[in-house]
Amino acid sequence: MLIKIKKGWELPESAATSESTFLNRRSLLKGMAAGPILAATAGLVTGCDGESSQTAQAANNEPDPSANLYPVQRNLRYRLDRDETPEELATTYNNYYEFGSSKNIWQKAQALPLRPWTVKISGMVETPMEIGIDDLLAKMPLEERVYRHRCVEAWSMAVPYSGFALKDLVDMARPLGSAKYLKMVTFKDDSVASGQKAGWYPWPYVEGLTIEEATNELAFIATGLYGKPIPKQNGAPLRLAVPWKYGFKHVKGLVEFEFTDKRPVSFWEEIQASEYGFWANVNPEVSHPRWSQATERVLGQDERVPTLLYNGYGEFVADLYSNLKGERLFI
């Protein structure tokens, strides 16, 4: 007899929220007042996605050429122990410092043009290339994954990303054996992203992973959200999702993937390395220098829940760090 042992994050299909319940909840949320939510989060300061009780409405009506690609098939390997966060919360209360320090930047983000959008693959690869976003999407096998997202500010959400495994892009790039890291760079255009005029920030936004992290099965490039192209405020057209790491690692608006033998210095690490390090793995037992990480507030709920080591994904990623000594893995 075959006995299947469930992983810690799996739930049976019967535990999933029904579509009717989800849609009814969305209708209820449309009528909520924004004040209490904003007041509860007014002190948050770092780079993560978040919540609002407003309904996201696109500020420009240009059709997205990739819209016909969605929805895509859900990969049931990545089930969760909680309901999906309502779309209104995840798409209207966002940090995106390129567009300002306010949480409510989703309207400003609509100014970002998504076509043409060219992705550069550079550095220590067999053949450097530039490729248009739609050509890249045509090459990649798209799927949907529901991931937890844990912000360093001690709140969390669970959202259905569409996109492709970062490993597929790495395989396409064919990095040299001497490449140890993947450096990722966002767009820079202060004519549409007014926050980039702030000279005290080290624009463009840079993030990095080791090659081992980038090729881990969880590392994901999100191109869609809630069965549609990913909204601009959530990182369109390409956004990193590494769910075992804090949200500031989930870099948005990607235009370059550089393979290198030097560890990148990431955006928040350059600003304040003592608070935002390179590794940024989730650990409830390691506090941020200014607050505890032991619990988190799930968006759309009042109660706090215990935070999980590696955000609950230790079965996938813990071995990546078993031989690292002297590294600040959890900040």
Question: Which helices and strands appear, and what pairs or packs with what?
Answer:
Elements: H1 19-30, H2 35-40, E1 49-50, H3 87-92, E2 93-94, H4 106-109, E3 118-123, E4 129-132, H5 133-139, E5 143-150, E6 155-165, H6 166-173, E7 181-186, E8 206-210, H7 211-214, E9 220-225, E10 228-229, E11 239-241, E12 254-260, H8 267-271, E13 295-298, E14 304-306, H9 314-317
Parallel strand pairs: 3-12, 6-13
Antiparallel strand pairs: 1-2, 3-4, 5-6, 6-9, 7-8, 7-12, 9-10, 9-11, 13-14
Question: What report would you give on this structure?
Answer:
The structure is a single chain. With 331 residues, the chain is of the alpha+beta class. 17% of the residues lie in helices and 21% in strands. It has nine helices and 14 strands. The chain has helices spanning 19-30, 35-40, 87-92, 106-109, 133-139, 166-173, 211-214, 267-271, 314-317; strands at residues 49-50, 93-94, 118-123, 129-132, 143-150, 155-165, 181-186, 206-210, 220-225, 228-229, 239-241, 254-260, 295-298, 304-306. Strands 5, 6, 9, 10, 11, 13 and 14 form a seven-stranded mixed beta sheet that branches. The chain is globular and about 45 Å long. The model is unreliable at 1-45 and 50-59 (pLDDT under 50).
